[in-house]
Amino acid sequence: MAKIVSYLRLKPLTLLQSFVALNVAYLVVVLTAIVFEFEWAERARQRFADHPAGTDWVLTAQIIAILLTVGAGLVLMAGLFYKLKLKQPLDLLMSASESISANDLEFRLSYDAKDEMGELCRAFEKMRGQLESNFKALWRSVEERNRLNAIFAHDLRTPLSIMKGYFELITTYLPQKRMSEEKLLDTLRTMETHIGRMERYVEAMNSIQKLEDRPVVRRETDADGLIARLDDGARRMAERHGKTYDSSKAADTATVDVDPDLVMQVFDNMIANGTRYATGQVNVDYEVRDGLLSITVADDGPGFSAEELQKAVLPFYRGDVPDASGRQGLGLYVCKVLCDKHGGCLAVANRAGGGGNVTASFRVRVDQ
């Protein structure tokens, strides 16, 4: 019964098929009505044949009746076509347009007809979904940029305050000749150190901007070959730092579609951190499964503190490392940004037996 009602509502038909079907129905109804009108006119002529006024008025009445029938049929057909095929999807599209104009993308556009209006609604829903995805990505980017700027401003405040203090010291005591030449040179060298520190901050900010603009260039790559290159570099770095190295791999596909340079850049940062904090052992696990390339670097060092687990991937975060060490605290942040760009993520954790774990994942289009 539901299928019959659906068919009568013309949902399975295209707009052209629906228009033709309604026209056929319209012609059948109108021609049937005209036949009855002819029969009525004939009976009227016979009935009023002997009437003094004659039967000329019958023809006029018949013509008017036919015109009214044709006109009423056209109006009825157009109304049915609009109500059955156009009204609901147009209302849905109008409501969706108003929601988008109000920056509200938290809705779903659903219209299950198989005609052109159904295709239009599905295309509109696809566009809405893409807009929502782009809007969320843009919002995350803006939030990340604001957070980065806040961190950058906070980290610059300390060297600027120190520079201001030294400047006031010099301008106060040097004119009075109360500052020795040795003290002046020592102060200037300290100021030079903090100037270099601020220059490194500015360079780091520029590198982050370039990082966010970096495109992802995917190409089909042999999974074993890529893992072998990564493994060889990691082994050499571990040996250079006097650490032992071990690795394992598991792959459910022979090839992966990735950006090898991006993967290697992330891995270089991860293995550098691992060898820096390891006491004597570094382990790397490579896995390709369910469309993801995952790389886990584990060390036997002190692991992450509770604060580091929350902040390790933030830009300019150095933990307990002194500011003047020359490190900007960007290694894991760079990894996080590049993993996000490649459709994956970066996760930090502590090993059950002690030490830290850093796992980078990359979304790959696998060729089964």
UniProtKB/TrEMBL annotation:
UniProt-listed InterPro entries: 2C_sensor_his_kinase, HAMP_dom, HATPase_C_sf, HATPase_dom, His_kinase_dom, HisK_dim/P_dom, HisK_dim/P_sf, Sig_transdc_His_kin-like_C
EC number assigned by the record: 2.7.13.3
HAMP domain sequence ranges: 84-136
Chain segments annotated as transmembrane: 15-36, 57-82
Keyword line: ATP-binding, Cell membrane, Kinase, Membrane, Nucleotide-binding, Phosphoprotein, Transferase, Transmembrane, Transmembrane helix, Two-component regulatory system
Catalytic reactions on record: ATP + protein L-histidine = ADP + protein N-phospho-L-histidine
Gene3D superfamilies, A to Z: 1.10.287.130, 6.10.340.10, Histidine kinase-like ATPase, C-terminal domain
Topology versus the membrane: Multi-pass membrane protein
PROSITE patterns associated with the record: HAMP (PS50885), HIS_KIN (PS50109)
Localization of this protein: Cell membrane
GO function terms (MF aspect): ATP binding; phosphorelay sensor kinase activity
Domain Histidine kinase residue range list: 151-366
Main enzyme class: transferase
GO cellular component: plasma membrane
Protein name as it appears in the record: histidine kinase
Organism: Paenibacillus flagellatus
